[in-house]
Every structure is written in C-alpha cells, then in structure tokens.
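Quick one, tokens below. Sequence please?
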C-alpha cells in the first residue's frame, strides 16, 4: 500500500481516482482510500504497478505535483 497527496490542489474522490488511472495507466487494478487531510492510500493489484508509481518519476495532475511514498504504519 502506498500513500499519495496532491500538493496545492484538492480533488474529490472520483476525480482523483480518474486522474490517477489516466496518469499511471496500471496493468492491473487499484483501490484508493481517502484518509482526510487530502491524503490518499493506494493499494495495487500488481506489484509491478506499485513499483512503477513509486519509482516512475515526477507525477503531475492538473499541473500539480503528486507526492507518492511507501506507506508504513
């Protein structure tokens, strides 16, 4: 599971999910959970998609940086 936050912009759940799908283009599915404070948890069906997102570079949504990090309890 990974965490992500869109810096400088707030998006509602369905818009965030749609934009992540278009931006990341995962091979498998993924789930997102809104944890308030504009922070989302993302669970990928495939490990390769997770690695792509975490190591894939700078992600932009509506010209705002998407901060992605490994989640830890």
């Amino acid at each position: 599971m990974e965490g992500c936050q869109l810096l400088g912009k707030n998006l509602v759940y369905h818009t965030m999910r749609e934009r992540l799908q278009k931006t990341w283009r995962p091979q498998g599915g993924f789930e997102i959970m809104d944890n308030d404070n504009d922070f989302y948890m993302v669970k990928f069906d495939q490990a390769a998609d997770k690695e792509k997102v975490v190591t894939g570079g700078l992600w932009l949504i509506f010209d705002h940086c998407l901060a992605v990090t490994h989640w830890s309890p």
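DSSP finds two helices and five strands in the chain. The chain has a mean pLDDT of 87.
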